[in-house]
UniProtKB/TrEMBL annotation:
PANTHER family: POLY-BETA-1,6-N-ACETYL-D-GLUCOSAMINE SYNTHASE. GO terms for molecular function: glycosyltransferase activity. It comes from Lishizhenia tianjinensis. This is Glycosyltransferase, catalytic subunit of cellulose synthase and poly-beta-1,6-N-acetylglucosamine synthase. Residues 44-200 form the Glycosyltransferase 2-like domain. Keywords: Glycosyltransferase, Membrane, Transferase, Transmembrane, Transmembrane helix. Belongs to the glycosyltransferase 2 family.
């Protein structure tokens, strides 16, 4: 029994390491297309709801850009605060080419995006959330990207203090893992910083699942783009990143994670549970206080860092050595999420996550 107990994690590590070696040795697909993104053929769309505390930052950031997209479309999803008045004040005498739209009959982020696409004149669309802030030369770098059907671009969570700080690590882990695995399959994308071909998006829209969700456009559209073998690029360049903030309370952080999990497929949920179980196993090994157990945990930590380092280095994330602590608390984190799923409502912007 003892032999089996110690053999299982060793077998896992060998498979884990083998997958890493396979991925880094696999050549990235070379797509023969030398055309780059033309800013004159790019529209920025920003759906928003109740973003009065954030919307001024995005306008200030756009004003500091050396170059601009052809047009910027803001879509109001029935805001009940003073976001509209803040936005209009910020745009007085602005040189930006801005269009402001309002959802009337429909509601939700996906509906806002579709309304913007109906009013878009360009072939390419860049989608942001209303609470992001781009780097100073963001659009200079966007025009250096080669044309693809979709570009998954990086989103960096601003560091917070205290317990909430660790909520950035689950987000960072899945995006770093997705970046490392991109040669096989892109695992995730964020609608806070997503670029795509408008015609391809609209052609595949009816084939995407998750119609009942108010949000999740990024997750479901990435899936359908991959199902139809579209050209997808993934970048981790800090010059193409936008920054955003974590939700401001533990409750809001948990609700955000529950929204993400609710859109996952059954096999993704199985993978998440397996990940939690594996890390619980290694936690038990550490508590055994044996040289063998500690050695296996050290080996796993080194492999974890190898998986994450390429992405964290690219986005200039320096606290990668917090990885061991993150994985140690991961089983408890998922247990808290499990309990929260019975207590907290799955809401998005003050609404039920699914349309009725």
């Amino acid at each position: 029994m003892t032999l089996l107990f110690y053999s299982i994690p060793l077998l896992f590590l060998l498979l884990y390491l083998g997958l890493y070696v396979f991925v880094i040795s696999k050549r990235e697909k070379v797509i023969e297309n030398g055309k780059r993104i033309d800013l004159k053929d790019l529209t920025l769309i920003v759906p928003f709801r109740n973003e009065a505390s954030n919307i001024d930052r995005i306008i200030h950031a756009l004003h500091t850009q050396e170059k601009q997209p052809y047009e910027i479309i803001f879509v109001d999803d029935h805001s009940t605060d003073n976001t509209l008045s803040v936005l209009k004040n910020e745009l007085i005498d602005s040189p930006l080419n801005v269009k402001l739209l309002h959802l009337e009959k429909d509601y939700g982020k996906k509906a806002a995006i579709r309304l913007a696409l109906d009013h878009t004149e360009t072939n390419y669309v860049l989608q942001w959330d209303a609470d992001v802030v781009p780097g100073q030369n963001y659009f200079n770098n966007i025009q250096e990207l080669f044309v693809r059907d979709m570009w998954v671009l990086p989103v960096v969570l601003r560091t917070t203090k205290g317990l909430l700080k660790y909520f950035q690590w689950d987000y960072l882990f899945i995006h770093a893992l997705s970046y490392r695995m991109r040669k096989l399959k892109v695992l995730t994308a964020s609608g806070a910083n997503l670029l795509y071909n408008r015609k391809t998006y609209l052609n595949l829209l009816s084939k995407a699942s998750g119609e009942e969700y108010l949000s999740g456009d990024d997750y479901f559209m990435l899936a359908v783009f991959q199902e139809h073998n579209k050209m997808i690029g993934v970048s981790a360049a800090s010059s193409l990143a936008v920054e955003t903030t974590l939700p401001t309370s533990l409750k809001l952080c948990l609700q955000q994670r529950l929204r993400w999990l609710s859109k996952s497929s059954w096999y993704e949920l199985v993978g998440i549970l397996l990940l939690a179980a594996i890390n619980l196993y290694f936690l038990i090994l550490i508590l055994s206080f044996t040289t063998y157990g500690l050695g296996l945990f050290l080996l796993k930590t080194l492999i974890d860092i190898a998986y994450l380092r390429e992405y964290t280095k690219a986005i200039s994330k320096k606290d990668i050595y917090a990885v061991p602590l993150f994985f140690l608390i991961l089983p408890f984190y998922f247990f808290v999420l499990f309990l929260a799923s019975f207590i907290l409502k799955k809401e998005w912007k003050g609404r039920e996550l699914k349309k009725k």
